[in-house]
Amino acid sequence: MTRYLVPVALALGFAFAAPTPARAQDGEGDKKVVKKPGTVLTFYGLRKLEQDPEVSDEEKLREWKAFIDRANEQIGYAKRAMDRWKNAARLRVVDAATRADSDDDISPRDKITKWNEVSDLYPKSSEARTARKRIAHWTSMETKRLVAAAEAVERARKPKVDRIGAWEQVLTWVAKGPEARAALRRINDLQKQLYTEAMSVDKIARIDRQTKLEAWNDVLAGRPSPDQAKKAKERVAELESQMVQEGTMKKTEKGKSGM
Predict the structure, then answer these.
(1) pLDDT at 32
(2) H or E element, residue 226
(3) Distances (CA, A) of 89 to 110, 118, 121
(4) Could you tell me if residue 69 is inside a domain?
(5) Residue 216, number of CB atoms within 10 A of its CB
(6) How far is Cα of residue 70 from the mean position of the Cα atoms in its chain?
(7) CB 236 within 8 A of CB 220
(8) Best CA proximity match to 118, nearest among 101, 131, 107
(9) What is the pLDDT of residues 166-177, one digit of tens each?
(10) Does residue 15 lie within any of the structural domains?
(11) How far apart are CA 148 and CA 192, in angstroms?
């Protein structure tokens, strides 16, 4: 009989010695819910928690409130994510313009090109208003740079054609405003000087035709008026023809002398 009692005693010993099962994690089978500190239960976990008589009403209320708060936070993020991806193309264009705006290695002209893209694609957006402000800013900055460059050419006493070209850069960039008016006045003054000099040089007999030709070509290389351009082209054609004839005559005379 003893041999039958031994297995029974061993079984009872193992039963009493077995550890008590830990409370299950969120919603695991029929076991009780255990929530880790700093976490929020899932909906299923909360339903299981409601069935636990050992949990107070106040704690259940707190857990449901935490669940709602987390859900609202996630829904808010989801809505922002939807807007973000819905407007992903616009965000990329705006981001590219913003990054270009703060990059010192990118020229004002290229920055304006980027902001123009924003303004053209999304004209009624808040980003378009920002784009227009930045365009105005960088247009002004580039205008100042071009004016400073033209003034530097003037101080260096470069040829009048070069000075006209420098001021034309300003006029090409900005068609209106005080800088444009000042550039146009200076161009007209320089062009008038070129034309007057060409006329004076052309009248002096002792000056060779090549020098006269260069003077009239300078008139054409500047910013001539229609009348100035017409006169300059006529004189260039005449002087070139005369120089060709002179060259032919010299060759003929050289050939005769060689005979």
Answers:
(1) 63
(2) helix 226-258
(3) 20, 11, 10
(4) no
(5) 27
(6) 39
(7) yes
(8) 131
(9) 999 999 999 899
(10) no
(11) 23
